[in-house]
Amino acid sequence: MGLDVDTPEPPELEAFDPNEYDDAEVVGDTDFRRDEIEEFLDDGAWDRAFGEWTDHTDLDTEDYDIVTDLGLIERFDFFWDSHADRVGYHAPGLPEDWKQHDLHPDLDSWGTVSSINAELTELGQIVCEVLKDDYIDWETDYEPPEDLPDF
């Protein structure tokens, strides 16, 4: 389908422990390398990933307007997960009890909420893939214990 919108500024990454997210499990050191990731986003990773996402997203302009009106793009978080040797992320989303919060006048169906949440998750995944494939060449510091049982 695709979406014809301007690329927003990349999110500013703040110091936050990803383990505080309800849906995250990060094991490893606490050096999440946000400053370096933020530089990569500013140096083109965000533009490339966002462009790839807009080429394939199922969001229409009205749904994307809800995303921007609510400032969801700015609430993305990306961090280095050294244990898994990957870029982790937290995608913002709309809560399940969206009706009780009267979040946006154009937000009127669970289908729209679900679509926005799914597409923001997809954007986060694409950003992580672009960062890992084309920008990050860090070696993981994680060494598995030597006394693991054979399976």
Word description of this protein:
It comes from Halorientalis regularis. This is DUF7992 domain-containing protein. Pfam families: DUF7992. The chain is mainly alpha-helical and 151 residues long. It has one domain. It is built from four helices and two strands; from the N terminus they run ααββαα. Strands 1-2 form a two-stranded antiparallel sheet. The protein is globular and about 55 Å long.
Please give the radius of gyration in angstroms. Answer: 17 Å
Strand content: 5-15%
State the major sheet. Answer: 2 strands, antiparallel
Order of helices and strands: HHEEHH
Cα-to-Cα separation, first versus last residue: 46 Å
The helix content, as a percent range, equals 40-55%
Count of individual beta strands: 2
Secondary structural class: mainly alpha
Strand order of the largest sheet: 1-2
